[in-house]
Amino acid sequence: MTKEEFLVTPYTVEGNINYEKLIKKFGTEPIDNILLNRIKKHTGELHFMLKRKIFFCHRDLNWLLNKYENGEKFYIYTGRGPSGKMHLGHLLPFLFTKWLQDKFNCKTIIQITDDEKYLFNNKKLEEYTKQGLENIKDIIAVGLNPKLTEIMIDTYNSKTLYNNAIHFAKRLTISTIKSAFGFNDSYNIGQYFYTSFQAVPAILESVRQGKNIPCLIPLGVDQDPHFRLARDICPKLGYYKPAIIHSRFLPPLQGIEGKMSSSKEETAIFTTDDKETVRKKVMKYAFSGGRKTLEEHRKYGGNPEIDVSYQYLYQLLEPNDKKIKEIHEEYKSGNLLSGELKQIMVKKANEFLEKHQKARRKAEEKIEKFLIKD
Ligand code: TRP
User: Fold this and answer.
1) Which stretches does DSSP call E strand in the chain?
2) How far is CA 47 from the centre of its chain?
């Protein structure tokens, strides 16, 4: 893979992702200021992840807002593949989901795909289910409203999922799956079937209510191919296509190429990391956009665009627009040194995690309230 190349599918994220090119490749629409203003009319303020284009593109958001303005309320659907512990990057779509839920007062369905992780990886099924229950604590900890939120675990809710998935499966051919995901003949048949499972919550509210209910799916952009396929099929089944809003990835600590992996401890900050671990990881591994020597740094300044500590602050940890602008300017001008920037980020990350971990402990008792019975 050359420097300009990159690959984004649900199962491989590689290279230095150019998000503008990705919009063209995927055929999504960029989120522009006209759309942001339209959202703002309903929400009063804009989430910083919208203003900063962390959620950077969409499908059919204008259609969704048309419906909303005509009195048709939408619901939200998102999910998590419990491959391992959750890190800060995994929280991003859930934090945004919580904001959407509050602003639009929407019902929310969250799918935990233990089956998917089993089909694609090497551990026992039970381990993914267990990991899913751990991840659910993180998801609840972002503050989702138990009255509005349902969490489905695929192996617990297999009846509802299977009985609807077959309608998608019937309309998905092997060749379509191959070209969407890059699979070949050596992939197992569960992997071929899986997309039809992930499609179900996008129509589930409509199935239940016996009438079409618009659906909005916030997701990391790698998940788009699943829903490109699902969106083609929904109208054939008599349902609306779900609208989608896509987020960028938080980079791995080592630098902007690719997505963080939960299999490598040192590439990410996990939601359960303690303060000292966070400090050590950032100091040792976080890629710096600073100059080689102090003198050069003072003279030419640092590059916030490639500095991982800055990116974590920008994308997640420093919602205050004035403060983030100040950090940007100070770093670029050379006043703020890389080590100092790292310290700001460590402090912010630890403040964030202290709150999160407290909520996560409380979430343990609440899990039952969120799970639904098949
Ligand atoms: N496949 C996703 C993952 O591996 C999990 C998932 C299921 C999901 N349904 C979703 C993610 C809907 C976003 C939106 O993480």
Assistant:
1) 6-9, 12-15, 29-30, 55-59, 75-80, 108-112, 149-153, 215-220, 243-247
2) 15
Q: Which of 78, 193, 259 to mutate to test the pocket of ligand 1 (most atoms within 8 A of CB)?
A: 78
**Phi and psi, residue 231, nearest 5°:** -65, -30
* Tens-digit pLDDT profile for residues 29-40: 999 999 999 999
Asked if domains 6-253 and 265-361 share a fold, the reply is no
Whole-angstrom Cα distance, residue 2 to residue 14? 11
Which residue ranges make up each domain of the chain?
Answer: 6-253, 265-361
Distance 94 CA to ligand 1 centre (A): 11
CA distances from 49 to 53, 124, 158, 246, 281 (A): 6, 36, 34, 11, 25
Is residue 111 within 6 Å of ligand 1 at its C-beta? yes
What radius of gyration do the chain's Cα atoms show? 21
pLDDT band for position 263 (cuts 50, 70, 90): low
- Cα(93) to ligand 1 centroid in Å equals 10
CA of 202 to the centre of ligand 1 (A): 11
pTM: 0.97
Q: Is residue 290 within 6 Å of ligand 1 at its C-beta?
A: no
CA of 333 to the centre of ligand 1 (A): 40
Q: Check: CATH 3.30.450.40 for 265-361?
A: no
The CATH code that applies to domain 6-253 is 3.40.50.620
